Amino acid sequence: YEYPGPNYYSSSTENVWLDEQNRLHLKIVYNDNADIWECASLVSLKNDWGYGKYTFEIDDVLMEMINKKGKIFYTNKLDENVVIGLYTYDGSDTAHKSHNEIDIEFARWGSKNAKIGNFVVWYDGTDGNLMRNLYTFSLRLVGNSSVHSFVWNVEGIQFDSTGIKEPLDYPSDDFDKLGTENEGYNYIPEPNNEKVCMNIWLIKRKDGSSGEPFNISGNKKMKSAEVIISNFEFIPYENNSPEIHSFIANPDSVEIGGNSTITCDASDPDGDEP
Fold first, then answer.
1. Spatial distance between the Cα atoms of 240 and 143, rounded to a whole number of angstroms
2. Tens digit of pLDDT for each residue in 24-35?
3. 229 burial class (0-12, 13-18, 19+ CB within 10 angstroms)?
4. N or C: where does the chain have the smaller number of CB atoms within 10 Å of the terminal CB?
5. Angle 245-248-249 from CA coordinates, rounded to 5°
6. pLDDT by residue (tens digit) across 96-121?
7. pTM of the entire structure?
8. Which of 213, 212, 218, 214 is nearest to 67 (CA)?
9. Which CATH number fits domain 8-241: 3.40.50.450, 3.30.70.1400, 2.60.120.200, 1.25.40.10?
């Protein structure tokens, strides 16, 4: 039982697996025996990613629902309490309070009509509190798949999404500047011991309870929530290096089960470890 959420996270192959196309599946399912919802989270073993371009390709999002007559149906619309997170995070002892957390998130945070896309950069406020810059957007897909990325370097952080109908530009005038005027807007985290994280989880409900979907009663109920990720790619910033770190695309670099961690296979033409 841990964060984010808090939730119960499972390493079962019902929650996390690779399919025949080497696509990663992360899935929230209900454990009847334990009477709990179980979420899925994967974290890279590599912990010094730093400056570069981070790209996540999503093939599909599936909500398995059941109506009051017991009929199962599927939809791409996320439950209000489901969160899909693709981000960097530094949980080490030397981490900044902001944990070098740079987020691409898909969530409505409990609000049915909220925009689902979220670009987030966390920073340390001048008063010592943890704060964030947030940009939200509608996620109207052209097809089922979409590609989401951010470039993080000494000059700034630039997010991008393709495969959606509305063009995006970050930073932009619509980007929320929290705290004092312009505080944190130009904040650029310095690399430390950040890892790459991918997860699907449930936020705390409005009544204060944790780990349950919003659609748990009424005419339809959530049976499961799943995201299919076909690729993750990282291109280092240094000297426009051609080496590409990639997992998901290379099944030999993925470990499923146990503590649900992912190793990273680095393509290095010189044969040296990056």
1. 32
2. 999 999 888 888
3. buried
4. N
5. 75
6. 888 999 999 999 888 888 888 888 88
7. 0.81
8. 218
9. 2.60.120.200
